[in-house]
Specification:
The complex is a heterodimer of chains A (265) and B (217).
Chain A (H helix, E strand, L loop, with lengths): L4 E9 L2 E2 L14 H11 L4 E5 L4 H15 L6 E4 L5 H9 L4 E4 L1 H5 L2 H10 L4 E10 L8 E6 L4 E6 H11 L3 E6 L11 H10 L4 E4 L5 H9 L5 E4 L1 H4 L5 H10 L15
Parallel strand pairs in A: 1-3, 1-11, 3-4, 4-5, 5-6, 6-9, 9-10, 10-11
Antiparallel strand pairs in A: 1-2, 6-7, 7-8
Helix pairs in contact in A: 1-2, 6-7
Chain B lengths: L3 E4 L6 H10 L4 E4 L2 H5 L3 E6 L3 H10 L3 H9 L4 E5 H4 L2 E4 L16 E7 L8 E9 L13 E7 L1 E5 L5 E7 L1 E9 L2 E4 L7 H16 L9
Parallel strand pairs in B: 1-2, 1-3, 3-4, 4-12, 5-6
Antiparallel strand pairs in B: 6-9, 7-8, 7-10, 10-11, 11-12
Classes of the chains: A alpha/beta (265), B alpha/beta (217).
Chain lengths: 265, 217
């Protein structure tokens, strides 16, 4: 049985981590390579880097960060943010990323997903979806709308339908962020997660809203997520990955135990 | 120091396997030169992508005879992911409705099968690997250790004794294979954290002292 995954997400801008700078255990809290190594040793199951920069110059910086990070960690690394071509996917993968996450560009040109999947395999392609709940009639079925450009632009697409389309085009996983829940620490939008998980057969990664351990458990159970992305609760040291996993094990979920690297060199 | 070669099959991310071996204290060189491969004390054979395309690349590089030669010489050999699948006789991947399945190196009799419909494919994530008997490749690793998988096909050895370890995904499938000096893992040890590095370190010890394989050989 597949383990439920805990995935720290780091926002990277111009080669530096830009959120969660209260990290106490690090010499340099803003160095993505050092942070990635920290989470690998802590027992993270994967890592996500989100490049929140835009310029071509900063893109090259990101390639460098990815290369250095991939050389220093021994768990999978996903990179997202501004990926708009198969060629840029190739460069990220060649520099050591294991998966690439596409969002805005795939909404504009959905075949970016199929082109990437044909070229590199579905396991490399993550479709990131930013969704916001649509106010409806009381008692009506809930709906969620997809936003692009980091949540700024409505796309007119329905989140469940877009997830189905992305999976059909060859995405290997869905990274699903609730814009309503993001940053609230009030819990994931489990209705959104469950609606998408029921509609696609590929794994759904929950994102946005985690504030406590119960929230993570609920994303896996009520939300049927395969993995949870966590930022604030990890970066600010609210919980360690070990504490999260211990809690989930007590609640009966399968997780990969945290074990230490042997000092071999 | 043993001469360990990572085979550049033209279809794998060699950087991560090379770094992980280094971390596991196994010094290896990357090569696609048949003479270098034939002269190695131990071989790591990674692969990603499609089976038939990977076989085509191997043939273009004239590697199959060298790989079979080093295997026949009894040198410890570790296939990873598609690298393990290529050791088998044939694969259902890209198979035509009529006609024979695309052939592999045929060093381990058996087929590479597609997961049955209804299961989410690819099988991606951390799953448990249970060795079927004690083996030096899994030395020091707890039974049922988690490793990182990402694949859509699995191997089915014709001889069940070639199944070294099993994993459950809808059904039990062979997640590690063994035939004498020939070893294969479906998961990615280079992406499997401490457990993966331990397995690579174990393989390094097998290369340094192939008698560890004992009467398993």
């Amino acid at each position: 049985m597949l383990a439920k995954r805990i995935i720290p997400c780091l926002d990277v801008q111009d080669g530096r981590v830009v959120k969660g700078t209260r990290f106490v255990d690090l010499k340099d809290a803003g160095d993505p390579v050092e942070r990635a190594c920290f989470y690998d040793r802590e027992g993270a199951d994967e890592l996500v880097f989100l490049d929140i920069t835009a310029s071509a110059e900063e893109r090259r910086t990101m390639l460098d960060v990815v290369r250095k990070t991939a050389a220093a960690i021994y768990i999978p690394l996903t990179v997202g943010g501004g990926i708009d071509s198969v060629d840029f996917m190739r460069r990220l993968l060649e520099n050591g990323a294991d998966k690439v996450s596409v969002n805005t560009a795939a909404l504009k040109e959905p075949h970016l997903i199929s082109s990437g999947a044909d070229r590199f395999g579905s396991q490399c392609i993550v479709a990131a979806i930013d969704a916001r709940r649509v106010a409806g009639e009381p008692g009506s079925k809930p709906r969620w709308a997809v936003y692009s450009h980091g949540g700024r632009c409505p796309t007119g697409r329905d989140a469940v339908e877009w997830a189905i389309e992305a999976a059909r085009l060859g995405a290997g996983e869905i990274l699903l962020t609730s814009m309503d829940a993001d940053g609230t620490l009030d819990g994931y939008d489990n209705a959104l997660l469950a609606a998408v998980a029921a509609a696609v057969s590929i794994p759904v990664i929950a994102s946005g809203g985690a504030g406590n351990l119960e929230h993570l458990y609920e994303a896996f159970t009520a939300g049927r997520a395969h993995a949870v992305l966590a930022a604030s609760i990890l970066h600010y040291g609210t919980y360690t990955i070990a504490a999260i996993k211990e809690y989930l094990v007590k609640k009966g979920l399968p997780v990969r135990p945290v074990s230490r690297y042997l000092e071999t060199g | 120091m043993p001469n360990v070669v990572i085979v550049d099959s033209g279809s794998a991310n060699l950087g991560s396997i090379s770094k992980a071996l280094e971390k596991a204290a196994v010094t290896a060189t990357i090569s696609d030169n048949p003479a270098v491969i034939t002269a190695a004390d131990g071989i790591v054979f990674p692969g990603v992508g499609a089976f038939e395309h990977a076989m085509k690349l191997l043939r273009e590089k004239e590697l199959p005879p060298a790989l079979l030669k080093v295997i026949a010489a009894g040198k410890p050999f570790l296939g990873i992911c598609l690298g393990m699948q290529l050791l088998f006789s044939a694969s259902e991947e890209c198979g035509r409705p009529q006609g024979p399945l695309p052939g592999g190196l045929d060093a381990i009799p058996g087929q590479v099968k597609r997961f049955p419909a209804g299961l989410p494919v690819p099988h991606v994530g951390w799953n448990r690997v249970a060795p079927r008997y004690p083996h030096p490749l899994f030395s020091g690793l707890p039974d049922d250790s988690y490793f990182y998988f990402t694949h859509s096909f699995y191997v089915q050895p014709a001889d069940p004794s070639h199944s070294l370890a099993q994993t459950e995904y809808g059904r039990l499938f062979t997640s590690a294979a063994s035939r004498n000096n020939l070893l294969g893992v479906q998961f990615h040890p280079e992406k499997s954290g401490p457990a993966g590095l331990r397995l690579l370190s174990n393989f390094g010890k097998i290369i340094a002292d192939p008698t560890l394989l004992g009467d398993l050989r």
